[in-house]
Design brief:
Length: 169
């Protein structure tokens, strides 16, 4: 029985398992997208429907304007899109309201908002991954324990080998 070969194989297996677990726990959420930081979605459960009096919607161009109470002029409305349901929600100066109107301009507006949100999420993921991969903390946690264990095993085997009697010819 070769103890050195067996302990070396045990160290290789433990190191591989350690590296896989560290990568899965550190980088996995950014790759898979299960980290809440990357899944910020607007959920509109109790959004009232828009009233035509406060909003002016051009469904052909996708332009949505609201009437400002203070200046009594039309201004571009802030919009939000739920990427899962593709529901268009607009701020009419007082509250967020759902838009049920359909049209090619609004469809383009929704598509652009979903695409921009997807691109923003990907940019966040990429910058998070770059930050993790370039940090010394990540690499020291990834390689430090296996290296320390390997050195400890090597020192132990070196000490044990010193106690073996050598046979003389």
């Amino acid at each position: 029985m070769n103890w050195r070969r067996g302990v070396f194989r045990l160290w290789i297996a433990a190191t591989t398992l350690w590296i896989l677990v560290m990568i899965a726990t550190t980088l996995g959420p950014a790759i898979i997208g299960s980290n809440p930081e990357f899944n910020v979605l607007l959920t509109a459960t109790s959004v009232p429907e828009a009233s035509a009096a406060r909003l002016k919607i051009n469904s052909d161009t996708g332009e949505i304007l609201y009437r400002d109470e203070a200046s009594n002029e039309l201004k571009p409305a802030r919009i939000a899109v739920n990427p899962q349901t593709r529901e268009l929600i607009v701020f009419d100066g007082e509250q967020w309201v759902a838009i049920k109107t359909q049209g090619p301009g609004l469809t383009r507006l929704i598509d652009k908002a979903v695409r921009d949100n997807f691109n923003r999420e990907n940019q966040k993921r990429i910058s998070y991954l770059k930050g993790q991969l370039l940090s010394m903390n990540f690499w020291s946690l990834l390689l430090g324990p296996p290296a320390a264990l390997g050195i400890l095993i090597w020192l132990t085997s070196w000490i044990v080998a010193g106690f073996h009697l050598r046979q003389s010819n």
